[in-house]
């Protein structure tokens, strides 16, 4: 049950004051015209076939194994990340009005608290976390869109998704602007992207930034309060709440950023399931998907919509537990809005990727070196309604798997503290680990269970 006490003993942080007019702030950062994704307009109301308005544009103690899931989740989802400059069939994407008027009719720029004597858990968490959550506007060529981001440090590093900064693969050299919670606007540069995790780091040069406080996502429980903060449908500073519905859900998301054939991967059986959602500008074709990104995610029923991607999922204390990345689509390739099933990349994994990108410009992912299929797959030697695990079809010569004496016919049932139920969950589990880490791999061989230690290599993209 998602309990929300009527009051909280935790004091509220000071409320940020409303910023000066947007025009003055643009002058401060050297921008004289609105970003395409922030183009001012009146809200557009229309049915699903309507056309948008022309103005729119460290080492830890061992813990019990966490289960990945009975089977890889196969319902259709859409990446929650992009509201195209001009996509307004749901009615709202205005981020500001005409700045030349001197008074901006923008969305609220901070959490409004009118009664300080009656502040519930969600309000307190939102006030704590919101100064660290930003709106990310991206444009390139004729494409434009917006997502969300999380401020990692006072140096200006911001964590978001690869599909946000590339507009779902449409833009190689994006123009990016970041709107802070207090309304300030700054240009941003890309520090690095990581297609295998769909994470990216961008950077702004700005004073007085509030870095997010990160929780330990390994300590989450199903049923914990989960609060999503970001810019769904272009509406910055939006807060929704729910609970952690499931932990370690494996999803596969079709991506144009990764090759069709990847190490330690089986061909995805989820052809209609997980797809990056491009901005959808009229006349701009969606990029063709090549391969799939495999992720172990936090599932939540907190409302997550297009534009939430890259934004924060926080706990009751306002600490970041995940990076919002995808939503369920109800089995359709078209966005249907929130249906109570959203997905977030655990912050422990996301922060590791981010810190590697900041340090080296790229991130590493573990590589085992096996060709695999699901043990329950039709036609496999272990096929059975009760089969679970990843069946090794072959072992790559010279790979970490060969060095650890893995063999064709072995069924991998666990990696580290994660249970492996199928080929996709094995891929996700292996890639969560960095290069060079030694992990225990549990296998079934000739009906007997054994564990071997494997020192992982480097997964390659392309």
From TrEMBL:
<dbReference type="InterPro" id="IPR051201">
    <property type="entry name" value="Chloro_Bact_Ser_Proteases"/>
</dbReference>
<dbReference type="Pfam" id="PF13365">
    <property type="entry name" value="Trypsin_2"/>
</dbReference>
<dbReference type="InterPro" id="IPR001940">
    <property type="entry name" value="Peptidase_S1C"/>
</dbReference>
<dbReference type="InterPro" id="IPR036034">
    <property type="entry name" value="PDZ_sf"/>
</dbReference>
<dbReference type="InterPro" id="IPR001478">
    <property type="entry name" value="PDZ"/>
</dbReference>
<feature type="transmembrane region" description="Helical">
    <location>
        <begin position="70"/>
        <end position="95"/>
    </location>
</feature>
<feature type="region of interest" description="Disordered">
    <location>
        <begin position="1"/>
        <end position="64"/>
    </location>
</feature>
<dbReference type="Pfam" id="PF13180">
    <property type="entry name" value="PDZ_2"/>
</dbReference>
<dbReference type="InterPro" id="IPR009003">
    <property type="entry name" value="Peptidase_S1_PA"/>
</dbReference>
<keyword id="KW-0472">Membrane</keyword>
<comment type="similarity">
    <text>Belongs to the peptidase S1C family.</text>
</comment>
<dbReference type="InterPro" id="IPR043504">
    <property type="entry name" value="Peptidase_S1_PA_chymotrypsin"/>
</dbReference>
<keyword id="KW-0812">Transmembrane</keyword>
<dbReference type="GO" id="GO:0006508">
    <property type="term" value="P:proteolysis"/>
</dbReference>
<feature type="domain" description="PDZ">
    <location>
        <begin position="357"/>
        <end position="447"/>
    </location>
</feature>
<keyword id="KW-0378">Hydrolase</keyword>
<protein>
    <submittedName>
        <fullName>PDZ domain-containing protein</fullName>
    </submittedName>
</protein>
<keyword id="KW-0645">Protease</keyword>
<dbReference type="GO" id="GO:0004252">
    <property type="term" value="F:serine-type endopeptidase activity"/>
</dbReference>
<keyword id="KW-1133">Transmembrane helix</keyword>
């Amino acid at each position: 049950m998602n309990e929300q006490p009527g009051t909280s003993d935790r004091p509220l942080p000071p409320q940020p004051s409303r910023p000066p007019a947007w025009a003055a702030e643009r002058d401060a950062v050297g921008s004289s015209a609105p970003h395409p994704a922030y183009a001012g307009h009146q809200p557009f109301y229309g049915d699903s076939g309507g056309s948008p308005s022309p103005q729119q544009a460290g080492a830890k103690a061992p813990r019990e194994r966490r289960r990945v899931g009975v089977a890889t989740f196969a319902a259709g989802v859409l990446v929650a990340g992009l509201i195209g400059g001009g996509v307004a069939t749901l009615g709202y994407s205005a981020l500001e009005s005409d700045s030349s008027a001197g008074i901006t009719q923008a969305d609220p720029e901070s959490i409004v608290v009118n009664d300080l004597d009656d502040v519930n858990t969600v309000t307190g968490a939102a006030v704590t976390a919101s100064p660290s959550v930003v709106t990310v506007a991206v444009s390139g060529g004729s494409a434009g869109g917006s997502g969300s981001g999380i401020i990692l440090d006072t140096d200006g590093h911001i964590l978001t998704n690869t599909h946000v900064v590339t507009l779902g693969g449409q833009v190689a050299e994006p123009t990016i602007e970041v709107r802070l919670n207090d309304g300030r606007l700054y240009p941003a540069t890309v520090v690095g992207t990581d297609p295998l995790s769909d994470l990216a780091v961008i950077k702004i040069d700005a004073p007085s930034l509030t870095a997010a406080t990160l929780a330990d996502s390994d300590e989450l429980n199903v049923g914990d309060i989960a609060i999503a903060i970001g810019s769904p449908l272009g509406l910055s500073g939006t807060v929704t709440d729910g609970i952690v519905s499931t932990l370690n859900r494996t999803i596969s998301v079709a991506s144009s950023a990764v090759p069709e054939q990847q190490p330690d991967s089986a061909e995805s059986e989820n052809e209609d399931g997980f797809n990056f959602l491009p901005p959808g500008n009229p006349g701009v074709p969606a990029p063709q998907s090549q391969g799939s990104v495999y992720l172990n995610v936090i599932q939540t029923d907190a409302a997550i919509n297009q534009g939430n991607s890259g934004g924060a999922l926080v706990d009751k204390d306002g600490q970041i537990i995940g990076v919002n990345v995808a939503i369920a689509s109800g089995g359709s390739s078209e966005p249907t809005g929130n249906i109570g099933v959203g997905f977030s990349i655990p912050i422990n994994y996301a922060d590791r990727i981010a810190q590697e990108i900041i340090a080296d410009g790229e991130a590493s992912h573990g590589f085992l070196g096996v060709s695999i299929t699901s043990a329950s797959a039709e036609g496999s030697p272990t096929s059975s309604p009760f089969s679970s695990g990843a069946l090794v079809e072959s072992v790559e010569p010279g790979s970490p798997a060969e060095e650890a004496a893995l063999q064709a016919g072995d069924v991998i049932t666990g990696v580290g503290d994660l249970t492996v139920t199928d080929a996709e969950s094995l891929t996700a589990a292996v890639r969560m680990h960095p290069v060079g880490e030694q992990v225990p791999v549990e296998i079934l061989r000739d009906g007997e269970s054994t564990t071997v230690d494997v020192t992982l290599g480097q997964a390659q993209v392309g």
